[in-house]
Specification:
The chain is α+β, with helices and mostly antiparallel strands. The protein contains 7 helices and 4 strands; from the N terminus they run E-H-H-E-H-H-E-H-H-E-H.
């Protein structure tokens, strides 16, 4: 008797990735894009831009009452960044693993932050932390795309 196994269909999910100003200035955009594509995920939107303060404050609004909020907004608006929308099965989870822990000291070797980030305040990259956050963030950076 032969058993046939079918892969359960997994619908594509989208997530937002930001290569922060430190990653852009250090020439790491190609490395980030390459790793995303080698993971088998698809880039469906990409834009190089300098973030407006109002967009940064909205994006990081959950941190508004924290002492590092001002520095975070200053840093993310300090120079160009690359915003990407990435699509694939379980894209949020896949990218969180590829990115690594927020603190580069705790990020696993082989993750983007583990390999390239210098400090927690300049940790190279942002990735949505949930499908709900991804939708909200994509709507903010790429209106009408999510």
């Amino acid at each position: 008797m032969t058993k046939r196994f079918r892969r359960s269909p997994v619908s594509a999910e989208r997530t937002l990735i930001l290569v922060k100003p430190d990653g852009v200035s250090r020439g790491l955009v190609g490395e980030v894009v390459g790793r995303i594509e080698r993971k088998g995920l698809k880039i469906v939107a990409l834009e190089l831009r300098t973030l407006e303060r109002s967009v940064a404050e909205t994006h990081y609004g959950e941190h508004a009452s924290k002492p590092f909020f001002g520095e975070l907004v200053e840093f993310i608006t300090s120079g160009p960044l690359v915003a990407l929308v990435v699509e694939g099965p379980r894209a949020v989870e896949a990218l969180r693993g590829l990115i690594g822990a927020t603190d580069p000291v705790k990020a696993a070797p082989g993750s983007l932050r583990g390999d390239f980030a210098l400090e927690i305040g300049q940790n190279l990259i942002h990735g949505s932390d949930s499908p709900e956050s991804a939708k909200r963030e994509i709507d903010l950076f790429f209106p009408g795309l999510s």
